């Protein structure tokens, strides 16, 4: 039986003016894991408004327990305003002072303690307000679960002090290349070029940082070039066979898709080689549909069937 997973952070709505799409990296992760059949407790806060109703509908659609879902009277459900340029580029405005900034620590602790998770996931955006940051600290102080940090830096909303504290609290950290470069600037003697992620200088600086923050593992996603996994016991594994979607739509939530399969593999005892290959394939396929999660939930069963049918050693 799979160990439960607890996830703390923002559930929000991306407002494109012509449509509203439920998102938020932690909530994307929660929905993916629930789609794969894992028991998930999502700790977040919404308002009693139309956007909150959209989030609740997604809890229902994915069969997620609402034990960690809080509703704040008079508070606004998290929102991101998205402007699409004539060239297809996107400009994001993350709205301040939203419901997920006011997560109640007592209620959150009760939900997580009832779940007794084996893995506890968190990020940085929901720490921008002292109220939710204090709630997260209370959970981290009490849990014995493995702590998985998806750094997910959002300029203007997260400062270095929050990043430093988060790294100190984490066991496993996932970053993209740009975030890794920022960590190098803050915490390492040199800032090596990450064009070749497998070069000695990158490995050396990563391991120095892992040692300083007592991390058991560091994951670096590299877009179409795959992902790299480093562990405190000396492992250095890369997978570049990401595959590609039949028709690229957007890369929204690709990192969240990768995280979901990485955690699934950890919970189900897959080899790291197999885990990275499957996480990369699922992330690449997620770029073939609009938004972070698929509309057809039956797609999760198809992935599980495909993986179950793979011969040993692949």
TrEMBL record:
<dbReference type="InterPro" id="IPR029056">
    <property type="entry name" value="Ribokinase-like"/>
</dbReference>
<dbReference type="InterPro" id="IPR050306">
    <property type="entry name" value="PfkB_Carbo_kinase"/>
</dbReference>
<keyword id="KW-0808">Transferase</keyword>
<comment type="similarity">
    <text>Belongs to the carbohydrate kinase PfkB family.</text>
</comment>
<protein>
    <submittedName>
        <fullName>Fructokinase</fullName>
    </submittedName>
</protein>
<feature type="domain" description="Carbohydrate kinase PfkB">
    <location>
        <begin position="14"/>
        <end position="293"/>
    </location>
</feature>
<keyword id="KW-0418">Kinase</keyword>
<keyword id="KW-0067">ATP-binding</keyword>
<dbReference type="Pfam" id="PF00294">
    <property type="entry name" value="PfkB"/>
</dbReference>
<dbReference type="InterPro" id="IPR011611">
    <property type="entry name" value="PfkB_dom"/>
</dbReference>
<dbReference type="GO" id="GO:0005524">
    <property type="term" value="F:ATP binding"/>
</dbReference>
<dbReference type="GO" id="GO:0016301">
    <property type="term" value="F:kinase activity"/>
</dbReference>
<keyword id="KW-0547">Nucleotide-binding</keyword>
């Amino acid at each position: 039986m799979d160990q439960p997973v607890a996830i703390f952070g923002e559930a929000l709505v991306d407002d494109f003016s012509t449509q509203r799409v439920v998102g938020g990296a932690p909530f994307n992760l929660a929905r993916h894991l629930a789609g794969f059949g894992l028991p998930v407790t999502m700790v977040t806060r919404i308002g009693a408004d139309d956007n909150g109703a959209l989030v609740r509908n997604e809890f229902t659609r994915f069969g997620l327990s609402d034990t960690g879902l809080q509703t704040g009277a008079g508070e606004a459900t998290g929102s991101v305003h998205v402007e699409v340029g004539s060239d297809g580029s996107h400009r994001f405005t993350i709205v301040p002072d939203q419901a997920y900034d006011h997560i109640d620590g007592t209620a959150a602790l009760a939900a997580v303690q009832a779940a007794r998770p084996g893995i506890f996931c968190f990020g940085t955006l929901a720490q921008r307000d002292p109220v939710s940051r204090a709630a997260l600290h209370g959970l981290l102080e009490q849990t014995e679960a493995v702590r998985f940090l998806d750094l997910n830096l959002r300029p203007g909303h997260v400062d270095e002090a929050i990043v430093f504290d988060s790294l100190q609290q984490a066991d496993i950290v996932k970053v993209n290349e740009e975030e890794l470069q920022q960590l190098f600037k803050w915490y390492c003697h040199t800032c090596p070029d990450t064009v070749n992620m497998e070069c000695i200088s990158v490995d050396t600086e990563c391991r120095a940082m892992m040692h300083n923050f007592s991390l058991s593992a560091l994951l670096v996603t590299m877009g179409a070039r795959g992902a790299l996994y480093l562990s405190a016991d000396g492992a250095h594994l890369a997978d570049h066979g990401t595959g590609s979607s039949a028709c690229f739509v957007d890369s929204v939530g690709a990192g969240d898709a990768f995280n979901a399969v990485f955690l699934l593999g950890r919970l189900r005892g897959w080899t790291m080689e197999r885990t990275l290959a499957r996480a990369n394939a699922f992330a690449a396929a997620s770029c073939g549909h609009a938004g972070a999660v698929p509309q057809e939930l039956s797609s999760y069963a198809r992935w599980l069937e495909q993986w179950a049918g793979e011969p040993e050693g692949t």
